[in-house]
Structure formats: C-alpha cells, structure tokens
Amino acid sequence: MKTNISERVQWSVLGFVLCAALFVFPSMTHAATCDFSRDLQMGDMGEDVRCLQQYLNGNGYTITETGAGSAGNETDEFKALTKAAVMRWQEANSLSPAAGYFGMRSRAMYATLTSGGSTPTPTTPTTPTTSGGSSINTTLLAQVADLKARLDAALRDNANDSSDEDSSEASAVRDLLGDVLDAIEDARDAIDDNPDAENIDDAEDSLEDAEDSLFEGLRAYVDGDYSDAEEALDEAKDSAEDAVEEADGDSDKSDAQDALDDLDDRLDAVEEEIDQADEDGEATSEAEDLLDEANDLFDEAETAYDEGDYDEALDLAEEADDTLDEAIDAIGDNGSGNDVEDRLDELRDDLDDARDAVEAALDDDEDVGDAEDLLDEAEDLLDDAEDAIDNDDEDEAEDLLDDAEDAIDDALNEF
Is the Cβ–Cβ distance between 28 and 121 less than 8 Å? Predict the structure, then answer.
C-alpha cells in the first residue's frame, strides 16, 4: 500500500512528536546551518558530515540515541546510521529514491528548509514542505497540533492517576517500539545490501507495511490503546523481519525454519515407528528415551528461533535429528541389551524388598539364618552383571543375573 505525500509527512511529524515524549528529547534543540559544497555518501569524512549529523539530530532524524553520532557527540564520518537518518529525512521530504545519498536534490531541499536561518527548533519540527517547496496545508497542521495536544494530555493523565496495569502496558509498548525500530533498521540494511535479490520488490513492500504498522502503533499509543498499539507493533516487527528474509539478508532464519518444519514431521514419523515396534514385541525403552531427548532438543530449538538465534536453532535441530537416528538404531537388534538392563533394574528392586523383609524379621526377633549373607552375595552379583553390560558381554550378564536371582530367593527362604 503506497502512502501519499501528505500522509507520510504527517506521520513523520507525528512520529517525531511521539518519540520526543517517549524518549524525553530536550524541549528545544538547535538546528545546524551547513555549507554543503559536495555530495555526501557512505565512507565520506569531513566537518560537513558532522554538520549534517547535527542538522539531522536537531530536526528529529536521530542518528542514534547514545554514543558516537548522538546529539552532542556527532562525528565526521558518514556511516550506516547516518545513511539511515538521511533516508528517513529524504522520505519525509518526498525525495525519491530515499537511498541515503545526500546529493544535489537533497542539498537543494536542505537549502529550502533552512532558508530562514539558524534558529532554535521546538520539539514539534518547523513546518515541513513538499518537494516543490509549498507549505503543508492548514488542515494537516491542525491535525498534528491536535494529536500532540492529546499526547500531552495522555501523558499528564498517566502521570497523575494511571493504574499499575496501564503503566506496565505502556512500558511494554515502549520496549516493543525499540525492537521494531531495530527490525526496520535491519530491513533497510538488508534491502540496501541486496538490491538485486530475487524478491527485492516483496522486501520493499514488506518494509513499507512495517512502517505503516509502526505508525498505526504510534497512533494507538497516543490514544492510550496499548493493546492495539502492541498488536500493530508486533505486525510491524513481523513485516520488517519478512523484509529481511525476502531480501536474503538473513538466510539463516529460513534455513532454521525449514529445519524445524522437517524435524517436526520426523519426530511424528519416528514416534509411530517406535510404537509399531513396541506392538510387535521388540524392545523400545532406549528408543523411547532417545525420542524424548529429541523432543526436548526440538523445544530448545524453537525457543532459540523465537529469540532470533537462528544459528543455535539450526544446531539444535541437527542435534535432534541425529538423536532420532540413534532412536531408530535402538529398535530391534539392540533390544536385547535393553532387556538385560531392565532385568538388572528389576532385580535391584527385588533386592531392596528382600532387605526390608529381613530387617522386619529381625525386628520381630525371628531367626533369619544366612539371609543377610545371601543378600550381600546377590548385590555383588548384580554389580558384576552391570559391569558385564557395560562391556557389552550380555551372555555373562545374563548368567550373573540368574545367580543373583537365585541368591535373593534363597535368602527369603531362610526365614
């Protein structure tokens, strides 16, 4: 959806008004007056670059909130953040393409906007102009003024009598706004870095959708509709992330998503295979344990994906896939080892029960004969059987388990 010039300028002004309230910009800033004698672009250095940054920071097109390039800390280097701010300024002033190159047309627009000289700039920017230099109409300015008045009133109400719930919702929206702005910045960078990408048109459309949703979220925030604001900002973030993917700026994301989809299908298939093996009488306990482990890894991979750590999500998905291979290998021929281990566990339980029975008999002053010695012998045999299992000597383990079972039965027959 294409936004017309008036709407885009209007919402640029609104965005500046809102950001001023959210991030506590100074109530007055000073616009820089610069003498641009050359075009400026990525990689350029000089005092004219510093002046450009001062101008942008002073008129609502913030280079960055903190550090190098922030208000009062402008630099003489034209880098990515400066380019992004120039793009926003060009877009707000209907300069197309808004590519971040500060060339002849941009310098002419700058001269038009600053023709009144260097004066303090109020929080609400001075009257914007269109590319032809004419002033925005009175109706538009009235709308912006009304919107700012509503914002000021909302902030006063929140400060005086807002509930904890409202305050928490407003804070959540402000936090989300930061994430959205980062996502949109990433999308712009991806589109700039991949101008020949196959889906570059889709990427640009998604970026525009993200910006539209951002403005909707800002408007809802001004009206105190925090739920609507959060919904719109979520949509803005999703659209920005789509733009990154469509511009091939983040192939890891699509790779991770594909891996998770494939893994989800494979988890179901392996579970069905294990269930069928169990119905056929094959040992499946180890396979089931490995399946559980794969499911846990899948959950961890999904969490990593949701947090934007696509490399980690991909690694976990691959680890889960390897675990499913092990689960399948644990079915059938490897089942006998599982049976021996299960029997060992059962006999250890029997040994514990037998010791409890001997202790109860002793408490009743019964003669237990050699029961205690026989149970000690059974425990030693079980330990030897466990060692045999670890050494993959299942025949030896079976013999030792038979002897241990006989010792436990003999102990119980002593009283």
Answer: yes
Q: How far is CA 147 from the centre of its chain?
A: 33
Handedness of CA 53, 57, 60, 63 (dihedral sign): positive
The CATH number given to 5-147 is 1.10.101.10
Count of CB atoms within 10 A of residue 381's CB?
A: 22
294 touches 327 (CB < 8 A):
yes
Q: What is the number of helices (H) and of strands (E) in the chain?
A: 14, 2
| pLDDT tens series, the chain, 415 aa | 333 333 443 444 455 444 434 433 333 333 457 889 899 999 999 999 999 999 999 999 999 988 889 999 999 999 999 999 999 999 999 988 888 999 988 998 998 888 754 333 333 333 333 333 333 333 444 444 444 445 545 555 555 544 555 567 777 888 888 888 888 988 888 888 888 777 888 888 889 999 888 888 888 887 778 888 889 999 999 998 888 888 865 567 778 888 999 999 999 999 999 999 888 888 888 889 899 999 999 999 999 988 888 889 999 999 999 999 999 988 875 444 557 888 899 999 999 999 999 999 998 889 989 999 999 999 999 999 999 988 888 889 999 999 999 999 999 998 8
What is the crossing angle of helices 164-193 and 80-92, to 10°?
A: 100
Please name the residue that has the structure tokens 């402008």: 74
| Extents of the domains making up the chain | 5-147, 164-246, 251-330, 335-412
User: Which pair of tokens denotes residue 245?
Assistant: 């993917």
Q: CA–CA separation, 328 vs 244, rounded Å?
A: 38
Strands 28-30 and 120-122 come out as: antiparallel
H-type alpha helices, 93-199: 104-113, 138-161, 164-193
Residue 233 neighbours by CB under 8 Å, 6+ apart: 173, 176, 177, 180, 213, 214, 217
Q: What share of the chain is helix, strand, coil (3-state, %, to 5)?
A: 70, 5, 25
The neighbouring-strand residues paired with 40 are 102
Query: Distance between CA 220 and CA 227 in Å, rounded?
Result: 8
For residues 118 and 30, what is the distance between their CA atoms, to the nearest angstrom?
8
DSSP state of 128: P
**DSSP of 318-341, one letter per residue?**
HHHHHHHHHHHHTSGGGHHHHHHH
Q: For residues 321 and 297, is the Cβ–Cβ distance under 8 A? A: no
For the whole model, what pTM was predicted?
0.32
